[in-house]
Amino acid sequence: MLEPGTLVAERFRVLRSLGKGGMGAVYEAEQLGLGRHVALKVMHPHIASAPGFTERFQREAQVLARLRHPGSVEVYDYGLGSGFLFLAMELVSGETVDSLIMREGALPVPRAVDIAVQVLEVLEAAHAQGIVHRDLKPANLFLEPSPGGERVKVLDFGLAALGGELHARLTQEGMSVGTPGFMSPEQMRGQPTDGRSDLYSLGCVLYELLTGFPPFPVMPSAEIVVAHLYKPVPPFHEVRPDLSVPERLESLVRGAMEKLPGARPPDAATLRQELLAVLAGPLGPPPPKKRGEGKKTERGLGQVRHEVPVPKPVPGGAPVAVLVPRHQAPAGDTLVMSLTACGFQAWVASETEPWARFGALLVVADGHESLAWARILAARPGSPPVLLCGPADDWDLVTGALEGGLFDFVPLPLDPIDLTRKVSRAQKLKR
Fold first, then answer.
1. N- to C-terminal Cα distance for the chain?
2. If DSSP states are collapsed to H, E and C, what string results for the chain?
3. Cis peptide preceding 413, ω within 30 of 0
4. 124 band by pLDDT with thresholds 50, 70 and 90
5. Domains assigned to the chain
6. What is the pLDDT of residue 129?
7. Torsion angle, alpha carbons of 168, 170, 172, 174, to 10
8. Which residues contact 418 (CB under 8 A, 6 or more apart)?
9. 129, 146, 285, 373: which could form a disulfide with 151 (CB 3.0–4.6 Å)?
10. Is the Cβ–Cβ distance between 2 and 156 less than 8 Å?
11. pLDDT value at 280 more than 70
């Protein structure tokens, strides 16, 4: 932490601390000569010393300085001075959405949607320049009073954008870039991200704005990661049965939080228009249905999908083998029944059967020895794609499967949609 009076780059005098995050600490500082007060973000030493980070920082800061939108924080200056890597930004006043939720709980639908729409306007401008935030959360959304009502300011654009390239390296060193409770599944896996990753995070924010609670309860980071990777989003009525949220709005929120990027809205503009359509319509509970209205009509209401439904098993596709330890035979039978119900040919197989006949191989985990066993099977010549099936809350097992050369991890308890999608992808890869 820098003490008040510290001079950074010979032109910014630190006045007081405003807070700190995963990549740096923020101070209110005076820009000498201009007498302007700014928000000065100074990188943590372990971040600034990352190989190539300074050069990357300079390039990204130049792009961010060109981002001009009333809802984005203006970048005034950046650089390396007095041994500090810094970013000087517009100083905003008001309160964060995080503190608002803590004080008021769930917000009325119009106000919650208006906040989300304003954030999406900023995202449209940023994504058009190839800037992805990667750390949208209530604490990074600032509500600033304005003559026309409250204005949402999106904070930390620059530093979050820088974080994506360093995510894998920092994670290995035990450092955190992004906030697990609001990160997209692809970001958690260290995969490439685009604007749809921000839409996932905004879906999490809007969920909390509407219910007063995050999509998944507060829990250790590893469990939150597993929940975002594999668990379905709880329906609003399970979290707040006392609230009435339009069905179409809940469908939009859940659509933004689809596990696969392709299942989410294609861009911020699309989601913004759909939310505005909700605001333009009735916001109360749907009227009671007349007698005689069939379930087919009811099932079609409010369903917003942006991707072809879950892939169907390949007709005549190669069968699926299930391997289990001997004392886990009931678990193997259950998995075979689930696969059959999903449309696959499947049976419990032995290690002596020829692998070429199978389109995928599911190994039922029985402790971490099963992980090593699955890795050995996956390395055999001619082996089909291997999937490990085990408890979703065993983080070591999950990460070991995803990082250890296996095709994928199937969490227990089984989700038929997730099971069908992953096994179908494995069969296609085998073909």
1. 57
2. CCCCCCEECCCEEEEEEEEECCCEEEEEEEECCCCEEEEEEEECHHHHCCCCHHHHHHHHHHHHHCCCCCCECCEEEEEEECCEEEEEEECCCCEEHHHHHHHHCCCCHHHHHHHHHHHHHHHHHHHHCCCCCCCCCHHHEEEECCCCCCEEEECCHHHHHHHHHHHHHHHHCCCCCCCHHHCCHHHHCCCCCCHHHHHHHHHHHHHHHHHCCCCCCCCCHHHHHHHHHHCCCCCHHHHCCCCCCCHHHHHHHHHHCCCCHHHCCCCHHHHHHHHHHHHHCCCCCCCCCCCCCCHHHHHHCCCCCCCCCCCCCCCCCCCEEEECCHHHHHHHHHHHHHHHHCCCCEEECCCCCCHHHCCEEEEECCCCHHHHHHHHHHHCCCCCCEEEEEECCCHHHHHHHHHCCCCEEEEECCCHHHHHHHHHHHHHHHC
3. yes
4. very high
5. 7-90 (3.30.200.20), 95-281 (1.10.510.10), 320-430 (3.40.50.2300)
6. 86
7. -140
8. 230, 259, 410, 411
9. 146
10. no
11. yes
Q: Please give the Cα distance from 30 to 223 (Å, whole number).
A: 42
Of 114, 127, 122, 124, the C-alpha closest to 140 is: 122
The Cβ-side half-sphere exposure at 400, using a 13 Å CA radius, reads 20
23-32, 169-178, 215-224, 358-367: the lowest-pLDDT one = 169-178
226/402 Cα distance (integer angstroms): 12
Q: Which residues belong to the active site?
A: 135
- Joined together, the tokens standing for residue 363 give 């190994």
Least confident of 3-12, 266-275, 306-315: 306-315
Least confident of 99-108, 191-200, 407-416: 407-416
pLDDT in tens, 221-248: 777 888 888 888 999 999 899 988 999 9
Exposure class string for 132-161: b at 16+ Cβ within 10 A, else e: bbbbbbbbbbbbeeeeeebbbbbbbbbbbb
Q: Kindly tell me the burial class for residue 212, based on how many C-beta atoms sit within 10 Å of its own C-beta (0-12, 13-18, 19 or more).
A: middle
